[in-house]
Write a structure and sequence with these properties.
It is elongated and about 100 Å long. α2 runs parallel beside α5, α2 runs parallel beside α11 and α7 runs parallel beside α8. 31% of the residues lie in helices and 15% in strands. The chain has 360 residues and is of the alpha/beta class. The strands form 3 sheets. The chain has an 8-stranded parallel β-sheet with strand order 3-2-1-8-7-6-5-4. A two-stranded antiparallel sheet has the order 9-10. It folds into 2 domains: 266 residues, Aldolase class I (TIM Barrel, Alpha-Beta Barrel); 69 residues, Antifreeze-like/N-acetylneuraminic acid synthase C-terminal domain (Type Iii Antifreeze Protein Isoform Hplc 12), CATH 3.90.1210.10.
């Protein structure tokens, strides 16, 4: 059942990002909704659908306060919030993974404890570690020992914490790692997205694929994820819902299927204009090159046998005649025919004067 996920082939494509639709627990404990999320994410163009696997009792103390926008999600206890959405079992994830295979979309789920890391092992092609667990070294190493690719979000982390997590993974012999820039704020305001961290991470960890986990409420054009891709993010992860108007949970800052389609269309449009990393004359420029550039033209009438003087020539469009940089080679030559004012000058209109080099 497990699907292949190789960073080299899927995550490093230049023409499109690898899009993870983060279903999380926006299914509201409904398997029917989860199945529809898989189907619609696949139809919209997401590469992967990712859930979250946990039990509230192993995730949060009953005394854990909320860290999200309480005007959007009113639950003030982490334990109470997570308890609302932790009903799925291992067999449920098996069914969802099997359906994802049928729909040709990669199935993923973030394990928040060792039990679910083991449950998910035969189902997922990679392990995703949430920003909040970046310092949970026992969980990270447990996942890393399974030898699957590791994707780490680094929201709210400093460099030392990121380095420690990377070292913990590499100590297991696992070298297949990607980092996602993330701002651990729900929701994240556009001015707080700090997308230049993508370029910073790419410089600091040049050996690793870099991506972006987005918590900015989507605009109609999906500009923040698009900008992240243009800054080098090879993976774009964003919460996914079938209905952004639903209250509570992560619906209010999630993308829906239409947003996924819009993002794919925007990426395709931008990709069509990226071209190659060369500087050359392109076929579409040839006509403009000939006619928008300049040549030497007759500034006034030039009679046959007349010596060309500097005041007899001007530099004007089109660029189909003697190039401007050859003006010094033209001055002093003899006209072989009458030339009208404003006529574009050609070398065969003139003969060389003694001592003047012929044009190459």
């Amino acid at each position: 059942m497990e699907q292949d996920l190789q960073f080299g082939s899927l995550l490093l494509r230049q023409d499109r990002p690898f899009v993870i639709a983060e279903a999380g627990v926006n299914h509201e404990n409904s398997l029917d909704t989860a199945f529809r999320m898989i189907e619609q994410a696949a139809q919209a163009g997401a590469d992967a659908i990712k859930f979250q696997s946990y039990k509230a009792e192993t995730l949060a103390s009953r005394h854990s306060p909320a860290y999200w926008d309480l005007t959007a999600v009113s639950t003030r206890s982490q334990f109470e919030f997570f308890k609302k959405h932790d009903h799925f079992t291992g067999s449920d994830y098996e069914r969802l993974a099997s359906y994802a295979v049928e729909r040709d979309i990669v199935f993923m789920s973030t394990p928040f404890d060792i039990h679910f890391a083991d449950v998910l092992e035969p189902l997922v092609p990679a392990y995703k570690v949430a920003s909040a667990d970046l310092t949970n070294i026992p969980l990270i190493q447990h996942c890393a020992r399974k030898g699957k690719p590791m994707i780490l979000s680094v929201g709210a982390a400093n460099n030392e914490e990121v380095d420690e997590a990377l070292q913990a993974i590499r100590e297991t012999g696992n070298q297949n790692i990607a980092l996602l820039h993330c701002i651990l704020s729900y929701p994240c305001q556009p001015q707080d997205a700090n997308l230049n961290s993508i370029r910073y991470l790419a410089r600091r960890y040049p050996e690793l694929p870099i991506g972006y986990s987005d918590h900015v409420p989507p605009d109609d054009s999906m500009l923040i994820p698009l900008a992240a891709w243009m800054l080098g993010a090879r993976i774009i992860e964003k919460h996914f819902t079938l209905d952004k108007s639903l209250g509570e949970n992560d619906h209010f800052h999630s993308m829906d299927p239409d947003d996924v389609r819009q993002f794919r269309e925007s990426c395709n449009y931008v990709a069509s204009g990226l071209g190659d990393e060369v500087n050359q004359v392109w076929p579409c420029e040839i006509e403009a090159r000939r006619h928008a550039r300049r040549s030497l033209v007759a500034n006034k009438s030039i009679r046959k046998d007349q010596v060309v003087t500097e005041d007899a020539i001007a530099i004007k469009r089109p660029g189909t005649g003697i190039p401007p940089q050859a003006a010094n080679k033209l001055v002093g030559r003899i006209a072989l025919k009458d030339v009208e004012a404003d006529e574009v000058l050609q070398w065969d209109m003139f003969s060389g004067d003694e001592g003047k080099a012929e044009p190459s």
